[in-house]
Amino acid sequence: METILLVSEQRMKQWTNLDNNIRIDVLTPSILNAQEIYIQDSLGTKFFVRLKEGVRDNDLTVSEEAFLKDYVGPSLMQYALYLLLPNLKYKFVEKGILNGTSEETAQTSLDELQYLRASTLETAQFYDERMRDFLKQNPNEFQQWKTWDGNGMPRNARSAYFSGLQTDIPRKHGLWIYDECGTDCDPDCSTCN
User: Are 137 and 186 in a shared domain?
Assistant: First the structure.
């Protein structure tokens, strides 16, 4: 399988807080995984493959090129950073998993790493939602995004955000009410749903 990146490693270093000395062989797998997991989910396989082929063949339309730069790139860079963060802290080597430290730096705690990942994921989801909104507002701009032929993944029309809040709450007397005891409180309620 050939390697086609929708954003360059250098651009990612310029537009994120990554240090310039991070090796490309460390960065590239995170970009590839972010493309396959998150960007393909938002665009659908058909449009995703078209963009990759356009990059490979150098035949992107002006609209596709602008879309990659202005919408796919920001989202992809943040998702790639989200996936990269654990790999910056932990190294997988033949003898086991190492916790990367340096004599001149303080070690990052797991709580700090989790906070950084959550913050990065929120940023990625913002850019992903912005990308989806652009596609919804310009439905005739990219035909591959609108159509799915049953091959690969269809585009995911749901929001990129996950708030972690429960929204499937039972109704009682026509109102949405969260009740900690659930149906155990009023088992005879005939108008709860």
Answer: no
Q: Specify the residue for token string 């990308």.
A: 131
Distance CA 183, CA 156 (A): 33
Overall domain count for the chain: 2
CB 40 within 8 A of CB 90: no
Burial class of residue 12, CB neighbours in 10 A (0-12, 13-18, 19+): buried
The whole-number mean pLDDT for each consecutive block of 10 residues of the chain, a chain of 193 residues, reads 87 87 88 95 93 94 95 96 84 61 68 89 94 91 80 71 52 51 46 43
pTM above 0.70, yes or no: yes
> What is the spatial distance between Cα 101 and Cα 108, in angstroms, rounded to a whole number?
9
